[in-house]
Design a protein that fits this description.
653 residues, Rossmann fold, Bifunctional aldolase/short-chain dehydrogenase, 42% helix, oxidoreductase activity, Aldolase_II/adducin_N_sf, alpha/beta, L-fuculose-1-phosphate Aldolase, Sc_DH/Rdtase_CS, oxidoreductase
Length: 653
């Protein structure tokens, strides 16, 4: 591990709290130290309050903040004298501790202080850093972990046996630190949990963390305990149906739709295919706080019923009266063919699970190479999994969006109506796959719940590859929005060539037929029923001259949708069509074209845009919103509908 401290950068972080922000971010940059809100840091500052009196204040990382991006507002200011008095109590319940911390903050809008606030307060150093360094956790998760830590650090650290985070840990640390710390002590190791460093300056505390973690890394290198992933050949075969089936089963067990993100990398496949996987993967998480993300152990293979029964037994064995069982669905699946699958209520949660278990694989592999991997007992892990303070972190955010855990695929998604559909679906919580022949689709959004794939929908092989990638990314398919199409220049039937006719049919009809056929097996497995929305056209009920190929293709597509509704209704799949007209905020309609068409009808551009009974402009956003709503509960009892969105067109009426 190398120090990332740069004197020139510190100028942007003035004051003690500014430097606390700076070194916290340095720690947060390194995922081998902290992941997704893990770890915490603090600084003790003397300040003058509104009454002109000086107070000693502990600024400690607030709950919910990530060290990698933390700001000054992410630190909770708590009065130190009160914290030190709390540390003298014999007992302090979790609700009492939370209340005492919150009511002794100096800023009402600050986040809730870390549950380790009292621990930070009792350590006699200005700056305190705490991480879950992979190297240190690896060593502590071995049978002789204490002896190894002593060998590595000597009197440079105080060693604390595992105690659940909170008040009891703070008291134990205070007592042990007072008894064992020497002038050489620069840190503290919490067995099966993590490591602390401290110092009189931000730089000193941070670089002591670098020094301590580097020693652990050197120890692992010395003992050849650094996992190395061999290059293995992945068998390329379709997995989308297997993955969608697995997702369907997991959603049934969980009681809600889930995202299933598959990671078939040399690392995950090698780990899942180990001969001893049944032993090493069933010990427990690398640190107990990971249990709220990953559950205690992963599912091996695909026997979900056996996993569920085992989880129910685990709950009954350790639960006290009045405790409500969480859903028994695994959050990690290890399979020799699939590698690692991460399960989450949404795409972001699945990504967090994947990150955490990716590091867990490294820790388990290294610990096994060093000696053997030995996690905490099931009882200790259960206490954290059902610890209300940890569960509260996952309950934040209120009611989830309506499409949380569901997956949508939109064609022609890079612009216009397709892009609007993507936006509307994302806003409702769906994970969205966007297909478009335009490569800009790949960078349309940079977020874990969107996957843009360049795809020519007239190429059947490209469609199959896109579906494989989509299901590998999110696990299945719940909603299909067929939007991709072309509107060629006006041409009479007498002048229409076979080539132009076939091109329009290929994109507007044939491609959608292929997509519907190939998506059907996936839509059948949608946990809450599959939904298809097809973007048709006003030209279906009211065609115009010069648009024979376009009108015929959209009419044939509409008829295809009606047949699909007849065939798929028994499988709970509903299929509906939207017929837009005069949607001008797309790339097809330039200012020049709009002006020319308006002139042709003797109208202003604005008059041309609103040339309908309601005198409204039909926008891509309006169509996207309707498409999303048709996938929702308002249309739960509707299939084979054809809904116009045209402001009222006399010819259609």
């Amino acid at each position: 591990m190398k120090s990332l401290w740069r004197d020139r950068e510190t100028k942007e972080y003035p004051g003690d709290l500014g430097l606390r922000v700076y070194t916290s971010r340095l720690l947060g940059r390194n995922p081998s130290l902290v992941l997704h809100g893990g770890g915490n840091t603090s600084v003790k500052i003397r300040e003058t309050n509104i009454l002109g009196k000086e107070e000693d204040i502990l600024y400690v990382k607030g709950s919910g903040w990530d060290l990698a991006i933390i700001e000054a507002a992410g630190f909770s200011p708590v009065r130190i004298p009160h914290l030190l008095e709390l540390a003298k109590l014999e007992t302090l319940s979790d609700p009492e501790m939370v209340n005492e911390l919150k009511t002794n903050m100096t800023r009402a809008i600050a986040p809730a202080p870390s549950v380790e606030t009292i621990l930070h307060a009792i350590l006699p150093y200005k700056y305190v850093d705490h991480t879950h360094a992979d190297a240190v956790v690896t060593i502590t998760n071995t049978p002789n972990g204490v002896e190894r830590i002593q060998e590595i650090y000597g009197n440079r650290v105080v060693i604390i046996p595992y105690i659940m985070p909170g008040f009891d840990l703070a008291r134990a640390c205070a007592q042990r630190f007072a008894a064992e710390a020497t002038e050489d002590t620069i840190g503290m190791v919490l067995m099966n949990h993590g490591i602390f460093s401290f110092g009189s300056t931000a730089k000193e505390s941070y670089e002591r963390m670098v020094q301590l973690v580097s020693r652990a890394e050197d120890y692992l290198h010395k003992h050849n305990a650094i996992p190395r992933t061999p290059n293995i050949t992945q068998e390329e075969k379709p997995l989308r149906h297997s993955l969608a089936t697995l997702r369907h089963q997991l959603s049934q067990i969980a009681g809600f739709p889930i995202i299933l993100a598959t990671h078939r990398t040399p690392k995950t496949l090698t780990f899942a295919q180990r001969e001893d996987i049944g032993a090493i993967s069933q010990q427990g998480p690398a640190t107990p706080d990971h249990v709220i993300r990953t559950k205690r152990i992963p599912l091996l293979g695909r026997d979900i019923n056996a996993y569920t029964a085992a989880y129910n037994d685990y709950f009954r064995a350790h639960a006290s009266d009045g405790l409500t069982q969480l859903d028994p669905a695994p959050r990690v699946v290890l399979d020799p063919e699939l590698g690692m699958c991460a399960v989450g209520k949404n795409a972001q949660q699945a990504a967090i699970v994947a990150d955490i278990y990716g590091h867990t694989i490294d820790i388990i592999s290294a610990a096994t190479a060093l000696d053997s991997y030995q996690a905490l007992s099931a009882k200790d892990i259960f206490a954290v999994e059902y610890w209300d303070l940890e569960q509260a972190k996952l309950r934040k955010g209120g009611k989830p969006p309506v499409f949380t855990g569901e997956v949508a695929l939109v064609t022609g998604a890079a612009s216009g109506i397709g892009k609007a559909c993507v936006t509307s679906l994302l806003q409702r919580g769906a994970a969205v796959v966007g297909l478009d022949i335009n490569t800009e689709i790949e960078t349309l959004y940079s977020r874990p719940d969107f996957c843009g794939i360049t795809c020519d929908v007239t190429d059947e092989n490209a469609i199959l590859q896109a579906l494989e990638r989509a299901v590998e990314k999110f696990g299945g398919l719940d909603m299909l929005v067929l939007n991709a199409g072309i509107f060629p220049a006006g041409c009479s039937i007498a002048q229409l060539s076979n080539e132009d006719w076939r091109k329009v049919m290929s994109i507007n009809l044939d491609a959608n037929f292929t997509l519907m056929r190939e998506c059907h097996p996936l839509l059948k497995l949608a946990p809450q029923g599959g939904r298809v929305v097809v973007i048709g056209s006003k030209n279906v009920p009211a065609p115009g001259p010069g648009a024979a190929a376009y009108s015929a293709s959209k009419a044939a597509l509409t008829q295809l949708v009606r047949v699909a509704a007849l065939e798929w209704g028994k499988e709970g799949i509903r299929v509906n069509t939207i017929h837009p007209n005069a949607v001008f905020d797309t790339g097809v309609w330039t200012e020049e074209v709009l002006q020319a068409r308006a002139n042709h009808y003797g109208l202003t551009v604005e008059g041309y845009k609103t040339n309908n009974l309601l005198k409204v402009e039909v926008t891509s956003q309006a169509v996207g919103e309707l498409a999303a709503e048709m996938c929702g509960s308002l249309f739960a009892n509707t299939t084979a509908a054809q809904v116009p969105i045209d402001g009222g067109n006399e010819r259609v009426i």
